[in-house]
Design goal:
Blueprint lengths: L2 E5 L5 H13 L3 E3 L10 E7 L7 H8 L8 E7 L6 H11 L3 E9 L12 H15 L1
Parallel strand pairs: 1-2, 1-3, 3-4, 4-5
Bound molecules: flavin mononucleotide.
């Protein structure tokens, strides 16, 4: 099974989640500016929201991932919203990429909100989630 991890981060929170997944998946977490080098069965897309929207670089990656993504798995952190699932679902569907119904989301620190998040517990939880997805 081919697995890949891509992330977009502004302040490091989402990278922590992506790196935790990398530990259990055994593949490196790379930025969304790095296109896929082969077709993948599972792509963990770690992302967030900035002023209510997913970053343009994440949108660009989904439009032109470089290779086929058989299944996309959404992983997000945010300060206020529930998750980025709905936005990613729209983008994935426009790009013809199947999105797994399972997702991971946790709080991410922003200004005075949620200091220290994602924390150790979130990182353990995202690893558990990734293991479940990978079967
Ligand atoms: C410029 C900026 C705008 C943000 N806007 C929102 C927002 O509209 N809604 C929200 O829930 N969180 C918002 N956040 C919080 C981020 O989603 C949260 O800090 C997230 O964990 C950031 O991930 P990152 O460190 O990987 O960039 C914003 C953060 C930044 C830096």
């Amino acid at each position: 099974m081919k697995i890949a991890i891509r992330y977009y981060t502004k302040s490091g929170n989402t990278k922590k989640l992506a790196d935790a997944i990398a530990e259990v998946a055994g593949v490196p977490a790379k930025g969304v500016d790095q296109p896929l080098t082969e077709d993948v069965d599972i792509l963990f897309l770690c992302n967030s929201v900035y002023w209510a929207g997913v970053d343009g670089k994440v949108k660009k990656f989904l439009k032109t991932p470089g290779h086929k993504i058989r299944k996309l798995v959404n992983v997000s952190s945010a300060a206020m919203i529930e998750s980025t699932y709905k936005q990613i679902k729209t983008l994935a569907s426009e790009a013809g990429i199947p999105l797994d119904a399972r997702e991971f989301h946790c709080r991410g620190s922003f200004a005075a909100l949620h200091k220290g998040k994602p924390d150790q517990n979130d990182l353990e939880n995202v690893k558990k989630f990734a293991k479940e997805v990978l079967g």
